Amino acid sequence: MRHLKLIPALVAGGLILSGCSETADETVERAFQDVNVVDESNLNDVMLTVADPNEAVDYFQKSLQSDDGRIDMQRGLAKSLTRARRNTEAAAAWARVVKMDEATDDDRVDYADALIRNGEWKPAQDVLNQIPPTHETFKRYRLEAMVADSNREWRRADSFYETAVGLTTRPAGVMNNWGYSKLTRGDYAEAERLFGEAIRQDPALFTAKNNLALARGAQRNYSLPVIPMDQTERAQLLQTLGLSAVKQGDVETGKTLLREAISTHPQHFEEAVRALRALDEG
Q: Which residue, 121, 117, 85, 109, is CA-closest to 167?
């Protein structure tokens, strides 16, 4: 009888041990799941920053094959396509993101950006109009300024550019865009000032240096600006000034500047050589 009495106790003990084992297994499994989430999050960050953009696209596309309802993966794919400059695909990917329940106003701004990169200005404007005015970010106002520029709404463009400049610690790019807007309007002096400001903010921004040369050339000022430049940049800016002089009708001055560009360049400057040859033959 003592053996029979021990059976329920042993069974109960077994159940307790079994329960402890299951609890331990579940704890371990959850721990591994947590580690996997952290690892995946880190990998996603790597793919969005330092990985080759096309490799990142492949990574997110493969991840979405098993679960296409994850907005973080859809967003990662859209960002990677943008980085890879696959603009048509990027616009389509962002369109999927903004239709998801968890989509944010930042996602809509990125969607508008993708549309602009794809040359779809009117749809981009429609997307921006859907974003509440309380969403005040540098990128949003930069895009608003670009759309206003495309519509030749100069006052709105200036207002948006000014706001965007105040919302970033790195305003060189938007100052360059603002300067180019002034250049296209024929406000060359103001364009020159803005390009100079952009270069002071980022001395390595060659686009602003070249635009500055264009603004000076449009005013028939063919001297090089006093800005940081290496020998190759100097040659390229001389070429820009030379072509600007030709456009203004100052052909001989343009030829002189092109010859100086050719002699300044540390290597063979084929583009300037072709331009000078065409002028001489013409």
A: 109
